[in-house]
Amino acid sequence: MSTCAELHVAAGVIRNDLGQVLIARRAVHVDQGNLWEFPGGKLERGETARQALCRELHEELNLKVLEASPLIRVRHAYPERHVLLDVWQVHRFEGSPIGMQGQPIRWVLPDELSRFSFPAANRPIVAAARLPDRYAILDDDTGDDAVLRERLHRLVSRGISLIQLRARRLGMPRYEALAQYAAEYCRAQRVTLLMNADSDWVSGIPVAGVHLTAQRLMSLRERPLDEARWVAASCHNLAELRQAERIGVDLAVLAPVQPTPTHPHAVPLGWQTFAELVDQVNIPIFALGGLSPDDIDHAKAHGAQGVAGIRGFLR
Ligand SMILES: Nc1nc2c([nH]c(=O)n2[C@H]2C[C@H](O)[C@@H](COP(=O)(O)OP(=O)(O)OP(=O)(O)O)O2)c(=O)[nH]1
Ligand SMILES: [Mg+2]
């Protein structure tokens, strides 16, 4: 049998001012026919992914890309071909899109994407399209729930829309009260709150999902919640990332990228190793450890979804 060459494809998650993303329906007779897709196509000889993205979006939609940044790279083996989907986020463009090949197109809110049928490779792309580029971790270094509530309000007022509640020092009745409060508050504010807690415990609380510690992740044989809720995980190496991919987590945090005062003995990965690890799994990954929102562009350039942080988001 001949070895299957990897087909390099550039695709765009195009956003409009309403926060909707553009999807198109593939023709019936082509590979992955009739399914919805993020517009794009194969790289031509000598082209970079970015050049191919611009050319394809012009050919397929009559759009001119003005601003784009890398979102996620996904490798997938279909029975008849292996693809590398190089997915970009298009923030600014000129023109109003039309299906130049007669393909139906639609603008949909990111949270509506799960209602459409995409090719199998698209699962992590849909997750990446739904996620922001910053992930704030609410940690109880003080053990004071009033301080935690104030920090939660501050994060939300700054436009943070993805938050992890990690309050290990509060005792049980207080943690439960805080979790209940935070879940309801975040739901009302349209903020995705993930609880760093046991998934069984979380099922009684109106929270958007769970965040697994690396230890909990490694002890699981399957995804602990169904697809209606988010599952995130903390990872530090390739074995943990692979396990996260195996059980189907939606997003991961990879740490520590830089030295951090909270983990003075942990050896930082550095950006180069971070990028090498990210490239080996199909999961949206946030960089964590000694970083702040100022590092987002740098993180994206190294394959990250964005940056996660504790103190960096409260300053
Ligand atoms: N554009 C795009 N392709 C996808 C997605 N998901 C997915 O698995 N693919 C696969 C299907 C195809 O095997 C390959 C893309 O090839 P394509 O046939 O669209 O490429 P193209 O636009 O250059 O097509 P053509 O000019 O050769 O007809 O990637 C997606 O979201 N967008
Ligand atoms: Mg195409």
UniProtKB/TrEMBL annotation:
PROSITE patterns: NUDIX, NUDIX_BOX. GO terms for molecular function: 8-oxo-7,8-dihydrodeoxyguanosine triphosphate pyrophosphatase activity; 8-oxo-7,8-dihydroguanosine triphosphate pyrophosphatase activity; 8-oxo-dGDP phosphatase activity; 8-oxo-GDP phosphatase activity; metal ion binding. The keyword Secreted does not apply. 8-oxo-dGTP binds at R26, E37, F38, P39, G40, N122. Keywords: DNA damage, DNA repair, DNA replication, Hydrolase, Magnesium, Metal-binding, Mutator protein. Its cofactor is Mg(2+). GO terms for biological process: DNA repair; DNA replication; thiamine biosynthetic process. Mg(2+) binds at G40, E60. Its EC number is 3.6.1.55. Residues 6-133 form the Nudix hydrolase domain. It catalyses: 8-oxo-dGTP + H2O = 8-oxo-dGMP + diphosphate + H(+); 8-oxo-GTP + H2O = 8-oxo-GMP + diphosphate + H(+). It comes from the Bacteria. InterPro entries: Aldolase_TIM, Mutator_MutT, MutT-like, MutY_C, Nudix_hydrolase, NUDIX_hydrolase-like_dom_sf, NUDIX_hydrolase_CS, NUDIX_hydrolase_dom. Belongs to the Nudix hydrolase family. This is 8-oxo-dGTP diphosphatase.
